[in-house]
Amino acid sequence: MNLRESSGIALGAIRANKLRSILTLLGIIIGVMSVIAVLSFVEGLNRFVSEKLLNAGSNVFYVDPYGLVTSQDAFEAVRNNPHITLEDGDALQGAIPHATMIVAQAGTRGTARYRNKEVRGVSISGRGPGYDVIDDLTIARGRHLTELDDQRRRTVCVVGSEIAEELFPGLDPLHHEIRLGAESYEVVGVVVAKGKLFGQSQDRFATIPIRTFQKFKQERGEFGLAIKALDQASMPLAQQEVRNILRGRRHLRPGQPDNFGITTSENLLTIFHTLTGGIFVVTIGVAAISLLVGGIVIMNIMLVSVTERTREIGIRKAMGARRRDILTQFLVEATTLSLSGGLIGILSGVGLALLAGALSPLPAAVSWPAVGMGVAMSAGIGVFFGSYPAWRAARLDPIEALRHE
To answer: Over the chain, what HEC string results?
Structure first.
């Protein structure tokens, strides 16, 4: 008996017991589907975040009091670090040979008002000259903030398209004044819409000069610095130059740790991949349990099948079928059963991932390694858990099998 004949007999047995076969496949289907769906979602998310972070500037890094804090212990170690000040930014200007731009920045949330209209949850930020290059912002109408705006602490602002549309429907917002906090600010520019990121609008903001922001907050405040290196290759040199100057300003001795943080896009990407790696491990764990249950069910069903078909096995052996033929038949049947569940799980997982990507702001991309993993796991489950029932069937004595009722 060749493999084709064994496969035909196996498929015939599966078709003859449709309901039992479907119930048997559920564990395999759920396990494979969860792996495909989650890994496709994670794959799409990784690509999306990588693209966004790299587009944000692979040669841009950020300086703030804390850096990347990923645990409570890490926060406790840096919570008393001194603030980054505008004076720190001024000290760096022109002193970093491997940087082209140093932009001071700070932010808060508040409400933007114009007459009887208001927009809540607005990102209100103070930015130094050059912020438009750092953030890759394009002006739709008007102009960006200038160095003169900052030096003279002018009460002017640039707003996102969403603010312009909600406060000034059908109007040109330029040169109108909106209220941010207790002050009125003249709108001098509207930025081209950037859309949503992870479901959050990127166009619900108002930007004012950084030194004007000090008055807005009524305090010296806590600032950060965005620094653009000459190119990606210059990043380590630019970071070291910044570190040397800030350590000198803070009178840190050799051997003392930095009391400020430097963050790059690669740092953020590493943290994100660590998080999605955790999701991957949990998913594999859940899927493994489901597949184990599915495998045990397949083994039990195949044992029942061997018992039900004992007389059939005896007839086949009496007609010349060898142990190897019976073993192959039942192994192929178990593997076919498991692969069928895997195929349904793959199709369901891909469909679920694409549906989630279509209905949510988060992207999904079919993970072909996960599809390959699904096929391999399905085949492996069938062979492993089908081996014992196949061995039992192959060892049946033909005379005893023919007597079986």
So the answer is: CCHHHHHHHHHHHHHHCHHHHHHHHHHHHHHHHHHHHHHHHHHHHHHHHHHHHHHCCCCEEEEECCCCCCCHHHHHHHCCCCCECHHHHHHHCCCCCCEEEEEEEEEEEEEEEECCEEEEEEEEEEECCCHHHHHCCCEEEECCCCHHHHHCCCCEEEECHHHHHHHCCCCCCCCCEEEECCEEEEEEEEECCCCEECCEECCCEEEEEHHHHHHHHCCCCCEEEEEEECCHHHHHHHHHHHHHHHHHHCCCCCCCCCCCEEEEHHHHHHHHHHHHHHHHHHHHHHHHHHHHHHHHHHHHHHHHHHHHCHHHHHHHHHCCCCHHHHHHHHHHHHHHHHHHHHHHHHHHHHHHHHHHHHHCCCCCCCCHHHHHHHHHHHHHHHHHHHHHHHHHHHCCCHHHHHHCC
